[in-house]
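Notes from the 1:1 (GR / supervisor)

We went over the backlog. Supervisor wanted to see one worked example end to end before approving the batch request, so GR pasted a single chain during the call. The sequence is below; no edits were made to it. Supervisor asked that the structure be written out right there so they could see what the output format looks like.
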Amino acid sequence: MKNIIYILCLSFIVFSCNREEFLDIEPKGRIIPKKVNDYRLLLDQTEKFGNTQGLQVISPGFENSYSNTELASDDVMITENLSSFYPDGSISTNIFTQNDNIYTDAQEDGDWQALYGQIYVTNIIIEDILNAVGGTLDEQMALKAEAHAHRAFAYFSLVNLYGVHYNPATANEDSGVPLRLGTELSGVQYPRASVQEVYDVILSDLNEALDYLPNLPELIHRPSKAGVYSLLARVYLYMGNFEDARDAANEALLLSNTLVDFNSYADWFFPGIANPPSLAQDDPEIIWSKSSNSTYNFLIASDDYLSLLAVNDQRRRQFGGPFLFGVSGTESIYTMGFVRNFKPIGPSVPEMLLTRAECNARLNNVSLAIDDLNTLREKRMDTGTFEPLAEIDQDVVLNLVKKERRIELVMKGHRYFDLKRYNVYDSSKIDLVHTYNGSTYTLPAGSKNWALPIASKYILQNPEIGENNRD
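Structure output shown during the call:
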């Protein structure tokens, strides 16, 4: 089949449409997938809403993922000098100021829309792939496994965006997100599942996927054993299950462990700004490609974050001055989304090293944690300036791991979730403080407001979802 064919998936934006709106409608000019290759093409759809190869694409694209944590974290700030990029009442500003309503009644939440869109498509594949023609059972099972893995990533993102952080003592009672595990449209209700129920689905999906995936993907947006083990490591880390997280990170690193020396990146158009590969497929550190759905967000690095960067740290080359955008000032703007046209948030080799290091630090395997920190840092310092860390006590090492994790994974979708989990598992609690136009906005550790508000549009159309409790 010469042209890529896409299923009608407009109805998969489950909570942005009336339930009956698309019932019993077979789309003109589109073909419901029937062949194994149709499902392959559907899972290989990476472009989000738009046009590709002359066809209107109404799939969210499986590389596209969440972005609303970027401005929610303490890695960013809004300065008075650059406040014109963040007008009062905009979605970005509402996230930054911890507003109880990020969206108007008519606005879509791009994160919710993309992730539930992916879930609907994966449900189609999980339900129907074994009835497809024109392929082998092994091909069918591999595609089904990919769908389970993508669904797990989507639900993991959703429950951490819109739910409180996983706490084993309360997870069975804490509200998570609606579980959509089928494709039916008529008479469906969308009540919230508990955080525990959502995590149970995530773990079930990932374990279901493992047996039928290749060790490494042919294309980086496809799930693989390395990708699934990497996501399992992230899931177990968030659950506070540090032994299983360490073991899963080990499995991932046995399959994919390439680190790139940051010194090897040439300058971009401007001196001092790194120019890494412009395609995820060409970046050997990426294990499974998932990207922020707001690639070009104008993100100002916070003073708190910048204070962590040593003068010999090559990762300073991820930032440029406002002059790049035709504005005067001394702020540091995260430029990688502009340089490489995507902001990766999927599993990577550095993340797995840091996950393993954190788990070993928490399990008091201090020397192993230090080894992983040194492995990473050696590739990040200016040539000839790297000095290995020495073995020290457990608390100091854990803090070093947290510091390195924050530096390395900046703007990659981790920091806000990390703050949430530190406030559950660690004795020292962290309040999140933002300043905007002279006003201070504080999100206290333990507040229910760490769960982002669900857009009112979805609640108005599906009242059983219910609003998140707000302090």
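Supervisor's comment: The CA atoms of residues 92 and 207 lie 36 Å apart.
Batch request approved.
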